[in-house]
Structure formats: structure tokens, C-alpha cells
């Protein structure tokens, strides 16, 4: 049995711990944040592929107790006219129904499930350096403590310390948009969504999405193209109303409910920069491996970040369980994962930049693979983590 150190107790790290534990590995998680409430404010959507991976972790009940299902997506143009409507999720399996929930709640649920299974999660453990050798890998933390294992997973997000110390030249880059999130229980009637529906608006000045929870609270986001990212100082020192006051005039250009939804938001609006890791970023160095956003962060346009992290967890655990040695397992994992996650990074970044993405090509001389076919191939391999 190998001992694995997971740096980062977010979605990728905790899901990896659940998968590795189920696959018979010894695992411990080290999280810099003092509790499980990191990034409590932003919300996300788990797609069917993420929920399929979640089911392989036996963690579906812990997560579907949170948030609410999404069964339909509407696409609306800048004039407010519905131009398309499509079902979400896989028919016939309620476990694979899209789900909208707050990121921090998902994180806390996964950590609670890890604790229930006896997996160690150490909070307040901030990584300082990594020492990798022939016999093992040691994590050194800023409080002077250390932990040693056979393999260290860097699941510490976009600004990964593991990546900084193992691949310092690999840096995230701005993907061309600023992304805003908010919530309001006071949405005008015209902006309230039907049950289980999320509306996407192709606005003239911003992409906008909104959905209304069963208790009447509307969740919304806006993606605004900008030449330069917001600085950390601009984000940290903004007044509670600054982003609302910036967005409303932009959204007023179109006769859609978007401006009224934002104007009705009295709670602070959250903002971040759409950021991505360049394709080809090194994932492995000695006895370390990057997973989740640390390896392949994408702009949020496809809404696949959390689902990709859950896939990473299941497939890595299966590789380590089934391959003859660690080197073979990590090579197999990267072969399986890199084409899929890098295609997502490309598609999501191109959506943010307004660029068309050609479909990926299948191996050999086969015609281009449809994204749903690639998804099926990848997830069929995840179907039996036991």
C-alpha cells in the first residue's frame, strides 16, 4: 500500500482522497485554509460527467443534499428572445441530473465525507517546500512540521504552491474576461426562472446567466470581456456596490432581465478574473503530480472545472490501483487525461475570447470526434472503481 500526500483540501484534493481511499491507498490531506469554508461565495454547476465520477466515489448522497437540480437550459439573445432550449443531464438516471450549488458547500460536504471515512484532513497546513528523493517525498510546512509519503499530489488550485516549487516556469494566464457572481431573493418577475431551468443570455456587452432556486433566490453570473485583468488590489479594495454599479449600465444596453437582476442584488458582488493554465504545462516532477486546477485550470465558460477535478480523482485512483508501478500509473493517467482536459481548456478559453473551436480529432484517420463521444470513452473507463 502506498502512502499519498494530498496538498489542498478543495474539490480536487478531497475527491482524490476519497477515490484513493476506496482504491486501497493510504492517504492524508493537507489544507492551508483553517477550515472548510474557502471560497464559500461563488456557485458552480456539476454536469453529468462530474456526477458520474461522484457516484464512483460513493459520495452522491452527500452532495445531492445540497443545492438544487437543473434540468433545462434556455439560450436567449440580446433582444430577449429565446433562440434555443435543451434538456440537461442524462435521461433515466436522477443521479446524473445537473446540480447547482455553492462551491464552499460542495467543498465542505466532500471534506465531511472524508472525515466520516476516517481520512485525515489537516487544516492550517501551508506548504513551504517539497523534497523529492528515491525513497519518498517530503512536504515541509510553514509551521515547521513535515509529512513524508510515496507520492505527493498538488491539488492546491490555480495558484498552486506545489506547481511553483516543481515547475516554476508554468504560470497561469488571463483568459480575457472578468467574471462576476451574485445572488438576490428580490428578482423581478421577468427574471425568475422556471423550476430547474438556467437561462444563458448572449448579451451585446456581456454574457449573462441566471437560475432561480426552489426557495426563490436567483443565482447569477456575468462574463465581461476586458483587455486586462483586475489587479488583486482592485478586487480587495472595491466598495460593496462597485461591481453592481459597473455592470448595470452595461447590461441596460439590452432589453433582457439581466440589468434588473443585478440591480436587485443587495449583497456584495463577487468578482474574479477568467484565468487558465496553458496547455502543455508539466504535471509531473519526481514524486509529485499536479491535478485539478493546479494542472489544468480553464476559464469558467464551459462550467466544467469541478467536474473535471472529480474525473481526475477517479481515473488517478484507478491507474494507481491497476497499473504495475507508480511510474506506469502516472504515465497512464496523463495519457488518459491530458487530451480531454486540454480540449476543455481550449474550448473554454475560446468561448471567453469569442473564438470558434474546431472539434477534436480522433486518433488515426478517423473523422473528428464529437465531444459527447469523447466524454463517453473517458467515462466508460471510470465506471468500475471498486
UniProtKB/TrEMBL annotation:
Gene3D superfamilies in alphabetical order: FAD/NAD(P)-binding domain
Region (Disordered): 338-386
Keyword Oxidoreductase found: yes
Highest taxon in the source lineage: Bacteria
Biased composition range(s): Pro residues: 357-369
Presence of keyword Oxidoreductase: yes
One Pfam family here: FAD_binding_3
Annotated keywords: Monooxygenase, Oxidoreductase
Domain FAD-binding: 4-345
The protein, known as: 2-polyprenyl-6-methoxyphenol hydroxylase-like FAD-dependent oxidoreductase
Amino acid at each position: 500500500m502506498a502512502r499519498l500526500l494530498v496538498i489542498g483540501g478543495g474539490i480536487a484534493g478531497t475527491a482524490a482522497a476519497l477515490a484513493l481511499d476506496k482504491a486501497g491507498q493510504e492517504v492524508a490531506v493537507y489544507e492551508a485554509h483553517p477550515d472548510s469554508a474557502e471560497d464559500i461565495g461563488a456557485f458552480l454547476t456539476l454536469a453529468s460527467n462530474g456526477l458520474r465520477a461522484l457516484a464512483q466515489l460513493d459520495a452522491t448522497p452527500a452532495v445531492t443534499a445540497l443545492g438544487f437540480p437543473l434540468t433545462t437550459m434556455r439560450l436567449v439573445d440580446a433582444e430577449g428572445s429565446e433562440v434555443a432550449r435543451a434538456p440537461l443531464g442524462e435521461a433515466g438516471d436522477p443521479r446524473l441530473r445537473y446540480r447547482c450549488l455553492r462551491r464552499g458547500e460542495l467543498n465542505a460536504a466532500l471534506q465531511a465525507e472524508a472525515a466520516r471515512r476516517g481520512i485525515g484532513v489537516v487544516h492550517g497546513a501551508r506548504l513551504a517546500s517539497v523534497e523529492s528523493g528515491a525513497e519518498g517525498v517530503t512536504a515541509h510546512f510553514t509551521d515547521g512540521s513535515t509529512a513524508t509519503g510515496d507520492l505527493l499530489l498538488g491539488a492546491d488550485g490555480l495558484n498552486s504552491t506545489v506547481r511553483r516549487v516543481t515547475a516554476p516556469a508554468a504560470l497561469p494566464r488571463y483568459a480575457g474576461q472578468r467574471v462576476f457572481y451574485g445572488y438576490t431573493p428580490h428578482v423581478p418577475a421577468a427574471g425568475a426562472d422556471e423550476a430547474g431551468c438556467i437561462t444563458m443570455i448572449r448579451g451585446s456587452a456581456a454574457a449573462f446567466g441566471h437560475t432561480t432556486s426552489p426557495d426563490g433566490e436567483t443565482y447569477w453570473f456575468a462574463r465581461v470581456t476586458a483587455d486586462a485583468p483586475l489587479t488583486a488590489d482592485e478586487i480587495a479594495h472595491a466598495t460593496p456596490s462597485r461591481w453592481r454599479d459597473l455592470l448595470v449600465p452595461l447590461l441596460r444596453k439590452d432589453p433582457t432581465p439581466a440589468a434588473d437582476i443585478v440591480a436587485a442584488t443587495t449583497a456584495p458582488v463577487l468578482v474574479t478574473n477568467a484565468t487558465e493554465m496553458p496547455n502543455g504545462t508539466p504535471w509531473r516532477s519526481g514524486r509529485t503530480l499536479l491535478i485539478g486546477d493546479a494542472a489544468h485550470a480553464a476559464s469558467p465558460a464551459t462550467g466544467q472545472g469541478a467536474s473535471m477535478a472529480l474525473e481526475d480523482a477517479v481515473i488517478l485512483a484507478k491507474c494507481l490501483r491497476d497499473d504495475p508501478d507508480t511510474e506506469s500509473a502516472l504515465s497512464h493517467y496523463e495519457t488518459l487525461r491530458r487530451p480531454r482536459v486540454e480540449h476543455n481548456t481550449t474550448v473554454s478559453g475560446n468561448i471567453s475570447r469569442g473564438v470558434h473551436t474546431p472539434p477534436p480529432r480522433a486518433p488515426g484517420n478517423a473523422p473528428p470526434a464529437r465531444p459527447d463521444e469523447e466524454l463517453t470513452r473517458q467515462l466508460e473507463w471510470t465506471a468500475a472503481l471498486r
